[in-house]
């Protein structure tokens, strides 16, 4: 069986591939391509939800590669992040940043996010052709997370470029180079915040490091700040583009939001379920023989849990390939994961998607695709399902 991840068609539309995999077996050994061996890929909803919260599956990549030379040159700060750690380290690190992303804190941020979104589209006029990804879906979330962390505006374009390189599937040289560029940059910025503290989140983390090295080491500081920076915008960018595309492809659903804008907030969950920005969750592995559902998972196997596939499981969601903004169980989606590793920034991501949709409906109610949907370019990333461009006519 060839690896689905080496087929360009997978990145254009991965849902038929996931459906075929799930029908054969919702937990299966799948070749990764080349000399990378196989991984356990989880495509069923119940199995994915269980695996995401299963403490027997480790996220400690350092332990996995301890006796498996990877041949990679990732920066040490990115070789093991909070996302690639288990308790108690994961618990300690997550506690340091949780307060920055609570629903109450996000509610305080909403006026600033809306003002930024309005500023980005103020130059757009009815009849214009614009790239919604380049013009809005990219700059909005990266500006928000950079402001939260205290990253200077002048540096945001290269941050965006390095971040995009970091998520490029298969291009190890490009990924490794981006890891060093991001880590070196954040290390330098942390040093600057040490000399001249401000009210941003990175300064608060620097203070924790300076006050208690046992609570946060220098390497962990850099690792955590890079993770927040990348995770804080990449999937939100994808979610905005995917959501707008889905609505433009389903005019009867879009009409429901025009008729009742109060439905927009609730619609975000169904949009996230329908086309999840996280297609395959970050790395897990089985330290010992274990089971996911009815399937055996051999010791040492990487485990790829697919929220994108799980959210289209007909065993959980009726008629899952249909966008239904009135779906009563849409909130059960796994787009943000599940368990202790559930996305920390979920409230912020949902708010940003909602704000963009509300703004687009108000400003440009007649917006339509400027090119056929089948010609739209998708990112070549196993983890993120997102558009490279979304040309629309306002």
* CATH architecture call: Orthogonal Bundle
Tell me the strand percentage band: 5-15%
- Counting structural domains, the number is 1
Indicate the structural class. Answer: alpha+beta
Indicate the low-confidence ranges by residue numbers.
Answer: none
Supply the CATH superfamily name: Cytochrome P450
Q: Overall mean pLDDT score?
A: 92
> Regarding CATH, which class?
Mainly Alpha
**Secondary structure tally: strands:** 9
Write the H/E string, N to C.
Answer: HHEEHHHHHEHHHHHHHHHEEEEHHEE
CATH topology: Cytochrome p450
User: Strand count, sense and closure of the main sheet?
Assistant: 4 strands, mixed
Shape label: globular
Question: Could you walk me through the main structural features you see in this protein, from its secondary elements to its overall organization?
Answer:
With 394 residues, the chain is an alpha+beta fold. The chain has one domain (4-393): Cytochrome p450 (Orthogonal Bundle), CATH 1.10.630. Helices cover 49% and strands 8% of the residues. It is built from 18 helices and 9 strands. The strands form 3 sheets. It has a 4-stranded mixed sheet, sandwiched between helices. Strands 3-9-8 form a 3-stranded antiparallel sheet. Strands 5-6 form a two-stranded antiparallel sheet. A hairpin with a 2-residue loop joins strand 5 (290-292) and strand 6. Helix 9 packs antiparallel against helix 13, helix 11 crosses helix 13 (218-231) and helix 14 crosses helix 16. The protein is globular, with a radius of gyration of 21 Å. The N and C termini lie far apart (45 Å). The mean pLDDT is 92.
């Amino acid at each position: 069986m060839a690896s689905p991840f080496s087929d360009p068609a997978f990145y254009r539309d991965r849902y038929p591939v996931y459906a075929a995999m799930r029908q054969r077996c919702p937990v299966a050994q799948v070749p990764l391509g080349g000399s990378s061996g196989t991984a356990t890929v989880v495509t069923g909803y119940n199995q994915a939800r269980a695996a995401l919260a299963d403490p027997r599956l480790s996220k400690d990549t350092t332990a996995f590669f301890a006796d498996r030379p990877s041949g990679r040159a990732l920066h040490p700060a990115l070789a093991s992040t909070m996302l690639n750690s288990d308790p108690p380290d994961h618990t300690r690190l997550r506690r340091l940043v949780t307060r920055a992303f609570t629903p109450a804190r996000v509610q305080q941020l909403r006026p600033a996010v809306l003002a930024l979104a309005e500023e980005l589209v103020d130059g757009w006029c009815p009849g214009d052709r614009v790239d919604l990804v380049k013009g809005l879906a990219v700059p909005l979330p990266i500006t928000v997370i950079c402001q939260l962390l205290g990253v200077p505006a002048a540096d945001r374009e290269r941050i965006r470029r390095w971040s995009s390189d970091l998520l490029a599937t298969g291009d190890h040289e490009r990924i490794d180079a981006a890891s060093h560029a991001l880590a070196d940059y954040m290390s330098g910025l942390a040093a600057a915040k040490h000399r001249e503290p401000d009210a941003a989140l990175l300064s608060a983390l620097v203070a924790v490091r300076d006050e208690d090295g046992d609570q946060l080491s220098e390497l962990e500081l850099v690792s955590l700040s890079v993770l927040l920076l990348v995770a804080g915008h990449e999937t939100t960018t994808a979610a905005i583009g995917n959501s707008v595309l889905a609505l433009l492809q389903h005019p009867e659903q879009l009409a429901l939001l025009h008729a009742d804008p109060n439905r927009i907030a609730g619609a975000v969950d169904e949009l996230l379920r329908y086309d999840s920005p996280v297609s395959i969750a970050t790395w897990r592995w089985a330290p010992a023989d274990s089971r996911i559902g009815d399937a055996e998972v051999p010791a040492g196997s990487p485990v790829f849990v697919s929220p994108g596939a799980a959210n289209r499981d007909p065993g959980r969601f009726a008629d899952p390939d249909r966008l239904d903004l009135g779906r009563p169980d849409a909130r059960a989606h796994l787009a943000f994961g599940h368990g202790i590793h559930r996305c920390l920034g979920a409230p912020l991501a949902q708010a940003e998607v909602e704000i963009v949709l509300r703004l687009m409906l108000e400003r440009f109610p007649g917006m339509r695709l400027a090119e056929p949907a089948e010609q739209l370019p998708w990112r070549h990333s196993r983890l993120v399902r997102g558009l490279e461009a979304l040309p629309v006519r306002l």
